[in-house]
Amino acid sequence: MGGTASAPLVVLEGIAKGFGEGEARVQALSDITLSVEAGTVVGLRGPSGSGKSTLLNLIACILEPDAGRLALAGETVWEGGRYRRRDLRALRREKIGFIFQFHNLLPFLDATDNVALAMTLAGTGLAEARRRARDLLDYLEVGRRAAAMPAKLSGGEAQRVAIARALANRPRIILADEPTAALDSERARVVMDLLRQVAREQRAAILVVTHDEKIFDRFDRLVSLRDGRIESELVPAKAA
Ligand SMILES: Nc1ncnc2c1ncn2[C@@H]1O[C@H](COP(=O)(O)OP(=O)(O)OP(=O)(O)O)[C@@H](O)[C@H]1O
C-alpha cells in the first residue's frame, strides 16, 4: 500500500451531477468536495431530493459524474470527463461493499450462502467462501443463525447478515443506504456500533445515508446536503 495508506479512501473534488435536458434539467449535485479517511463513519443527511442517493451512487460508480474528480483507495477513478478504469464491475467488487435499507438477502439461500455468494462471484472457492462466511457471521454475533433462511431472521439479524455480506470481499469502502430504517432504536444502535467497529478494526471508510436522528450520535462526522450542495458538516456529540 505504501504511500497511499494514509490517503483518504474516498475523495470527491468539485463533483457535479445533473439529470435530464433543457427545462427538465435537475442539478442533483453541485461542487461536492468531500474526503473520508480510513477508520471513519460519515453520515449523509438532508431533505428528500437533496442528492444523498446520487452521491452514494457516484461513489459506487453506478452513476457517472459530469465534472470534478473521484478517487477511491488512492486511485483516480473519474476525472476529465471519463472513467480512468475500464472494469467498473471489478472495481466495485474489489473496493466497495454495499448495505441497503431492506437488506436484499436472497430468500432461497441460507445466511451462510448469502454471504458466501458474494465471495464465489469474486472467484473464491465455495468451501473457502463458506468458511469465511461463518467467521464473518460469528464476528457480527449472528453465527448461531448461520443455517437460517432469511425469512426466519429478525430484522436486526438480517441486517447483520447483510453487513457480513458487504464485508465478504474485504472492501475498504462501505456504502450504506438507510441501513437502520427498518430497525427499532435499540437494533439501529447495535447495527451502527457494528459499523463503527468495522471501520476501526478493518480500517474502512463508511458512508451512511440516513434520516434516522436516533443514530446521529454514532457518526464521526455528519454531512448535511441541501439542494445538491454540502450545507454544513458537524462532529456529533458522542453518546455513551
Ligand atoms: N435517475 C434520475 N433521473 C432524473 N432525476 C433524478 C434521477 N435520480 C435523482 N434525480 C433527481 O435528483 C435530485 C436528487 O435525488 P436523490 O435521490 O439523490 O435525493 P435524496 O437526497 O437521496 O432523496 P431521498 O431522501 O428522497 O432518497 C432529485 O431532484 C431527484 O428528483
UniProtKB/TrEMBL annotation:
The keyword Cell membrane applies. GO terms for cellular component: membrane protein complex; plasma membrane. It holds the Pfam family ABC_tran. Keywords: ATP-binding, Cell inner membrane, Cell membrane, Membrane, Nucleotide-binding, Transport. Residues 10-240 form the ABC transporter domain. GO terms for molecular function: ATP binding; ATP hydrolysis activity; transmembrane transporter activity. Belongs to the ABC transporter superfamily. Macrolide exporter (TC 3.A.1.122) family. This is ABC transporter ATP-binding protein. It comes from Caldovatus sediminis. The lineage of its organism: Bacteria, Pseudomonadati, Pseudomonadota, Alphaproteobacteria, Acetobacterales.
